[in-house]
Design brief:
Layout: H1 2-6, H2 10-57, H3 59-72, H4 81-94, E1 100-102, E2 106-109, E3 113-125, H5 127-139, E4 144-153, E5 162-173
Antiparallel strand pairs: 1-3, 2-3, 3-5, 4-5
Helix pairs in contact: 4-5
C-alpha cells in the first residue's frame, strides 16, 4: 500500500488523501451521531430507573394513602361498568345531548378497587352543550374522572357543530 501511494504523482497523492479524509470525516460524524443517540438513551433510561426506584421505595406510603383514600369513598356512590354507562347517559341527557354513543366499559382490577373506564362520543353538538356535559361530569368527582378529551369540528360547513370524544374512569370499591 505504501509503495502504491509513494509511486503516485503529487496531485494523485493529494486526491487520495482528500478521499481518505472525507471518508474519515463521514465515519466520524456517523459515530458521533450514534454516540449522542446512545448517550440520550442512557440518560433517559437512568432517569426512568431513578423514578421507578423512588416509586418502589415509597410503595408502603403509596399503599397507605390509597387505603386511606378508599376508606373515605362512599361505596354506594361508586360505579360499576353498567352504572358507569348509565351515568354517562344521564349526564349527556342532563346536558341536552341527544346524538351520543357510549362504548363498552372496561375494567382493571386491583386488590382494593376496580377502575372502570368507558368512552362516549358526542356528535354534532354545540360548545354550550359540551360545557354543560363537562360541568355535570365534574359534579360526580372523585367517583368519575376525566381521562381523555378530544374536541373537533364535526363538519366543514358549520364549524359550530362539534364532535366530542371523552374517556372517563370510575372507581369501584371491591367488596
Amino acid at each position: 500500500m505504501k509503495t502504491f501511494f509513494l509511486s503516485r504523482q503529487t496531485r494523485e497523492k493529494i486526491l487520495l488523501l482528500g478521499l481518505v479524509l472525507v471518508a474519515a470525516l463521514w465515519w466520524l460524524s456517523s459515530a458521533i451521531g450514534r454516540g449522542s443517540i446512545f448517550l440520550g438513551d442512557f440518560r433517559s433510561t437512568t432517569e426512568t430507573l431513578k423514578m421507578q426506584k423512588l416509586t418502589l421505595d415509597a410503595r408502603e406510603s403509596i399503599q397507605a394513602r390509597a387505603t386511606a383514600a378508599i376508606q373515605q369513598l362512599d361505596p354506594s356512590r361508586t360505579f360499576d361498568t353498567v352504572r358507569l354507562q348509565a351515568e354517562l347517559d344521564t349526564i349527556a341527557t342532563a346536558a341536552g345531548i341527544a346524538n351520543k354513543n357510549i362504548g363498552d366499559a372496561r375494567t382493571e382490577r386491583t386488590a382494593q378497587f376496580s377502575i372502570n373506564s368507558a368512552q362516549i362520543t358526542i356528535r354534532n353538538t354545540d360548545y354550550a352543550s359540551v360545557i354543560k356535559f363537562y360541568e355535570e361530569l365534574k359534579k360526580r368527582s372523585p367517583y368519575i374522572g376525566l381521562d381523555q378529551l378530544t374536541l373537533s369540528p364535526s363538519n366543514q360547513a358549520n364549524p359550530a357543530q362539534l364532535t366530542l370524544m371523552v374517556k372517563v374512569s370510575s372507581v369501584e370499591i371491591v367488596k
